């Protein structure tokens, strides 16, 4: 990339397995900030998107309330889950039966584009603060 840094973003779901399988060193362990792995060669970074601050979604990622140990690839937190619990997003989610109970999932992958174009622009800026540590890291690498 001509000496420029490269960043790959991963949802905290089955994509964890791809992230985890990359050859490199974990430089950010906290999933609430967005786990970061620096690939073994070059300025390339794999970033797990931060986990939603909403408790029902955190239960789909973390094994307990310490918010440290995760279900890894069995977690269920896509980027849309970060905005779960807001009045403007509730109609996009549903509960689904799974081993051990229920999980909250996006109703349809076909709604992702509409969600991004129509819902995200009307969400208040404070709901994007969860991304701040990730963007600060990226900003620091793009000097």
Describe this structure in words.
The chain is of the alpha+beta class. The protein has one domain. 20% of the residues lie in helices and 22% in strands. The protein has four helices and six strands. The chain has helices at residues 15-21, 55-58, 112-119, 132-141; strands at 6-10, 24-28, 36-39, 44-48, 93-98, 101-106. The protein has a four-stranded mixed beta sheet with strand order 1-4-3-2. Strands 5-6 form a two-stranded antiparallel ribbon. Strand 5 and strand 6 form a beta hairpin. The longest helix has 10 residues, at 132-141. It is globular, with a radius of gyration of 16 Å. The mean pLDDT is 93.
Please give a quick description of this structure.
The chain has 143 residues and is an alpha+beta fold. 20% of the residues lie in helices and 22% in strands.
Helix and strand topology:
Layout: E1 6-10, H1 15-21, E2 24-28, E3 36-39, E4 44-48, H2 55-58, E5 93-98, E6 101-106, H3 112-119, H4 132-141
Parallel strand pairs: 1-4
Antiparallel strand pairs: 2-3, 3-4, 5-6
Proportion of beta-strand residues: 15-25%
One letter per element, helices H and strands E, the order comes to EHEEEHEEHH
Structural class: alpha+beta
Shape: globular
The major sheet is characterized as:
4 strands, mixed
How many domains? The number is 1
| Total number of beta strands | 6
> Could you give the distance between the termini?
15 Å
| Helicity range | 10-25%
Mean pLDDT: 93
């Amino acid at each position: 990339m001509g000496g420029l840094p490269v960043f790959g973003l991963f949802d905290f779901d089955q994509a964890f397995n791809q992230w985890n399988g990359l050859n490199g060193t974990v430089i950010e362990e906290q999933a609430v900030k967005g786990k970061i792995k620096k690939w073994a060669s070059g300025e390339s970074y794999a970033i797990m998107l931060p986990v939603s601050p909403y408790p029902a979604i955190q239960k789909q990622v973390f094994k307990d309330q310490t918010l440290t140990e995760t279900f890894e690839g069995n977690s269920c937190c896509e980027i849309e889950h970060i905005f779960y619990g807001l009045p403007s997003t509730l109609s996009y989610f549903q509960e689904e039966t799974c081993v051990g109970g229920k999980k909250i999932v996006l109703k349809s992958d076909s709604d992702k584009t509409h969600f991004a174009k129509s819902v995200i622009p009307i969400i208040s800026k404070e709901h994007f603060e969860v991304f701040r540590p990730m963007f600060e890291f990226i900003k620091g690498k793009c000097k």
